[in-house]
Predict the 3D structure of the following.
Amino acid sequence: MDSEPAMSENQTPGLKQLLKKFIPLSLSDVVMALGDPLQTTALTRLPQAQETLAAMGVVKSIAVFLESPIIMILHASTALGKQAESRGALWRFMLILSGILSLIFAVFCWGPVYDWLMLSVFGVDQSVANIGRIAFLLMIAWPFIIAWRRFFQGLLIRSGENRFVGYSSLIRLGWVVGILAFGLYMHWNGAMLGGLTLIGGVFCEALLVTYFAVKLKVVERIDAQDLPPDPELPVNLLGVARFYAPLASTMLIVWGGRAVLISLIARSQDSTLALAAWPAAWGLVLAIANATRMVQQIVISHIEQVSISVLFRFTLIVGLACSLILSFLGLTPWGDVLLNLYLGQNPDLLSAVRPVISYASLFPLMLAFQNAIQGWLITRKQNWLINLATLMGVLVMLSLCWSFIQAGFSGALAAAWAMLLGALLEITVLGIASLRPAKKAVN
């Protein structure tokens, strides 16, 4: 077991080796994303399915928005984990930031604040807001647990123990499947089942990645590599905050934009149906597209060992494979049968979800290249260029979605087109930014 990291340090990985390293890493994101379609499958078979799906879609968007500043803890842990001072400073920074975000979540749970958030900000019906209340309460600790989990995932990746990230994700999937099956059998309240599925799954995964990191002594193994100190890496809280700010703000823009997107969908002509169809459709898209997210980690950890052409072919293979899966679901008769089963034989949901899946077929390929270019820019310390591209993409996405809704598009279809065109612009800006020369470090 101890020999694998040494081998990866001394050998230049080829395309096959990159794919072999990528698969267990991608499993974590795939399992994370699978929770949404599995949850949709369960909730469509319980009473008030459409309203419950709409409520969970809004609750999840708020939870992920509050989580967004700590999503990039994984990337920071992978980058800063190689030296003790930087790692310790990141750990303290993570505890403070995730604690503040969980406290904000708790404030949002207070009755008048919750009603204002759901009814005025997101514009949902009172019935949808009432259904979502219990799920919102269950998820107070969501930001803290996510940050904790991603810190230790980063250390496992840095030490070369990628497969244990995947093993932990499988246990999370086991929790999701088990609790959904039990909740269906017991005819639980849909929102309570949805909340327990989300928070319980990430808690199990956080416990396991911590256990593996301690058992495998990843910190000791990283330090034993005796890597030369990197003067560009931060070694205190203020330095970590400066390093992390552009990464956190990028995710804040992304998920803030997607939360605003939900509020726009709620104001479409088919409001409640669209709010139910959007998480059902886009959750399935992300379950497949999220398999490409760890392309960024492969690029970050191998950019000095592997040629750009090999990384390009690797990204293309990963993106095309995932896009073909989505094309099968959205563009073939067999895929139509599977979608119908997925949505509990609900014809209204199927008519709203099918076109979103069809048009989003190329999204995984786009996401793969987006993550590859972002990884390249992170290694060149050009994080603010990522921020700029993200901001431009989100602004265009929201503007287009509002325009499409005003033109009479269904809410889910308007959001899908806006999301795809915004992502295309973001990738274009990232591509142009990657051509800029890297700035030299100032000592």
User: Anything to note?
Assistant: DSSP finds 20 helices and no strands in the chain. The chain has one domain: 11-434.
